[in-house]
Amino acid sequence: xxxLTRVVLVADDNDVSRYIACRVLRQAxxxxxxxxxxxxxxxxxxxxxxxxxxxxxxxxxxxGLTTLQQLRDDPGTAAIPVIFLTATAHxxxxxxxxxxxxxxxxxxxxxxxxxxxxxxxxxxxRAKSHPKTAAVGSDGSVHDGHRSPTLPxxxxxxxxxxxxxxxxxxxxxxxxxxxxxxxxxxxxxxRELREKGQDHVNEADPAVRNQHSDYEKIVENAIAxxxxxxASLQMLFPERGSGGELLLLSFRGFNPQAAKFWEWVRADxxxxxxxxxxxxxxxxAPDISGCDFMAGSDDQGIYLQxxxxxxxxxxxxxxxxxxxxxxxxxxxxxxxPLQKDLQLFDSLxxxxxxxxxxxxxxxxx
Length: 365
Fold this sequence. Notes:
Elements: E1 7-11, H1 15-27, E2 31-35, H2 38-48, E3 52-56, H3 64-73, E4 82-86, H4 92-100, E5 105-108, H5 113-129, H6 161-170, H7 174-196, H8 206-209, H9 213-226, E6 230-237, E7 245-252, H10 256-261, E8 264-266, H11 272-279, E9 283-285, H12 298-306, E10 310-317, E11 323-331, H13 339-361
Parallel strand pairs: 1-2, 1-3, 3-4, 4-5
Antiparallel strand pairs: 6-7, 6-11, 7-8, 9-10, 10-11
Helix pairs in contact: 2-3, 5-7, 6-7, 9-13
């Protein structure tokens, strides 16, 4: 019952990221307070004294570091653990400053719900067990304002992320789960930075294929935002076939047969993504068993066989105004998504479009 009273302050000017984080936390029985500005976050922290703060590194009025400094300078908020949210790999200088100020951890958007809950719960537990300092270094160690020891910057000194992930999946001790989660985040961050330094992408290299974890994060966020049971992300290859074809990049919930069937989708497909590709607009099928445009089709059969009874597909529109892919969510029961949810989903779709365009442009350098 104690967990029901825990309060999390989520400070992020990105409406989608803030909404997703709050939804995930509320579903886990946390109470949430929202802030769009750094100064607002500091004021709300003084007023409500939350158990933990999720703080965007880059706020419109002031940086996350400035806000964190204000929190640490106030005796009433100095002990509140803070987790930084960031959409990009922050500089070594920012990371050093954050550690000096006692940031509990670093979290990359798009948010992965399970990891978010693990890090939040672990950070609160550590803060309560060390009330004097309540500051946890990025390596998981508690410190008193002096910089925590960190892992060496040499990538060869870090464990492979797959090894960390495998160990994390089997760990049950809350303290060790937090340490492993943070180690995994750092390992993925280093891998991403190394990949950004490459001029050409070799898709046959397993280490490079792991960049699709970004696509997986988008899919996880889609499920959290729309409260769906399945989701998928596709990239358009306009040169294939007549009208282009969609390649399945990432998915959640599909069985092997469904994943193989929808690996490539043409514009003449009777699926929602095929219709969306043909008509260049969002398609919603609230009840697949009674859907007229896919009646009797192989797509309808695969949907129902997979346990999908409702779905929606939203086109991903690139900077030039052209479709670059599709993002879909699916439900096990008939469902018609609310307009307000679709409006927020459009913001996530823009993030997905930007991600796909950045990956497409990479080999063209």
